[in-house]
Fold ATP phosphoribosyltransferase.
Amino acid sequence: MLRIAVPNKGSLSGPAAEMLHEAGYQQRRESKELRIVDPENEVEFFYLRPRDIAIYVSSGRLDIGITGRDLLIDSGADAEEILPLGFARSTFRYATKPGTAKGLEDLSGMTVATSYEGIVAKHLADNGIDAAVVHLDGAVETAIELGVAEVIADVVETGTSLRNAGLEVFGEPIMKSEAVVIRRTGADTDETAESKVQQFLRRLQGVLVARTYVMMDYDCRVEQLEKAVALTPGLESPTVSPLHNEGWVAVRAMVPAKEAQRIMDDLYEIGARAILTTAIHACRL
């Protein structure tokens, strides 16, 4: 069986389980379950701390895992990202009191407090900055006030909590993170195992596509078909079928979900009618 690590709690857990369910895999019913077997799909799921998943996968004990890109890099584990999943997005930034630093080069000789020592130490080293890094498990904003560090590095969403602490972000982002599927670097698997891994990835990719697109159907006059097709080119091309009323055709195409309303407006303007959108629950490209 394919052995897969899944986050057992935190912001990664719920969305990961939901995606796996949409991809057709069984998921645990109780949060206390640490392992379940999905015999129909020949998969075994292990529910682990998100920070530990990269370590387990790099050891070769588990075939693949779902974790955050930030946790993968911070772990220093011998594992690599093979598919971004588009949820649990975050941005890592440096922050400090106004007037302390304006750019990365100003950090030389300073101390940086963070919960992600691996990420920050690597970023500083990659940029040739000689600064000390102090590891804290949380609430890093207080490190500056208490004199533990001059600068912090943390996840920044709106920046409200930093402003409330009298801090401001500076410099370019350290990194952008999201949930990812990971695998041991240079994993050497037999043909059967590799086929299962690729099937798993195709299923998740199908979920990502299904979430990104909607199916659009509409009727239009034949003389407006070229304009309509230009608005809804689909993936290869749209499906066009003649209607019983002469001079009319029915068109079906996948369109980006975020652009669906604008496309419907444009289609209506050129005379298309009976314009419908429906959700896509699964997809293979």
The radius of gyration is 24 Å. The longest helix spans residues 191-212. The first strand starts at residue 2 and ends at 7.
